[in-house]
Amino acid sequence: MTRPYNLPAFKEAEEARSLEELELVRVRALGKNGAITALVKTLGQMTPEERQSKGIFYQAMKSEFSRLVSERKAALEAADLDRRLATERLDLSLPAKDSPQGTIHPVSQVMDELAEIFADLGFAVAEGPEIEEQWYNFTALNMPENHPARAMHDTFYCEPRDGQAEPRVLRTHTSPVQIRAMQAQGAPIRIIAPGRVYRSDSDATHTPMFHQIEGLVIDRRIHLGHLKWTLETFLRAFFERDDITIRMRPSYFPFTEPSAEVDVGWSMEKGRRVVGGSEGWMEVLGSGMVHPRVIADCGLDPDEWQGFAFGTGVDRLAMLKYGMDDLRAFFDADLRWLKHYGFRALDVPTLSGGVGA
Ligand code: DAH
Questions:
Q1: What is the pTM of this model?
Q2: According to the model, what pLDDT value does residue 356 have?
Q3: Which residue among 211, 228, 253 is best mutated to probe the pocket of ligand 1, counting the most ligand atoms within 8 A of its Cβ?
């Protein structure tokens, strides 16, 4: 390309092979002691006529040079990017070096299954602290001090916090999350609250830490029929059988009135007791209509808002569904047990794919 300017900087800029080289060329021309800068400086010593013609020429040369530099810069940058795109490649199709060894614990799997089932029914997941104030764990659930139900829970008490008289407890059930959720969200509300709970108890079917899931619905004109339908629907989806029958037995929980224990029918299949049919009954859930006093203590008007609640053991559900019989093995961290009963990491339960994995 022929240029009206015979300054070597133009050719050098055109031929620069890297951004660094181009920058050197630019500084040599436009820097403080640069060739073009020097030319522009000579304008000061010229006569006004000379300056007028040369001034225009030098300015044009300067801006043409700047334009050339930025054009070259863009081209070099694009070339640089192309080169990097061609070399810095990450082949995602390579097989992982070792296939994953770990498995998902049945409790985690069942919690995921429950979250999936209840999400489909419009329930959100709520959480609360495992170290809980007695007011939430007991009092607000209609278990005032000295209430006999407090003694039934084999509670672990913590040291009181500095400046606080009352010790906190390791929550003995997930029911306090009902209170926290109602206080935080008001009504209407539809939540499940899965999580760890603690009781001082240990044998083949009891461990000091275990898992529960709580359900709570508060809305207008809610009645027992809604509770029964919800539990039937949930148990059918969970056990993946249509022949699930339930039986509700009158019972007592301080925070529900009326209260019902829910049994599910079982039958014998290949010498094993499985959920489904109605050869016999086993208890799986506690439930009831939320006590008006509990609703009022959360700041809601019980004449306007009613609801139902239920609670059940997640570990127990896992044992029933997947056929384990010793709860203690759940928490032994024995790799052989986990390999046998665990789930593949990518087996995410979905309603369409089957929550049973
Ligand atoms: N919190 C009870 C327990 O741990 C279980 C329970 C029973 C929860 C009835 C409820 C309910 O929400 O309505 O034994």
A1: 0.72
A2: 54
A3: 253
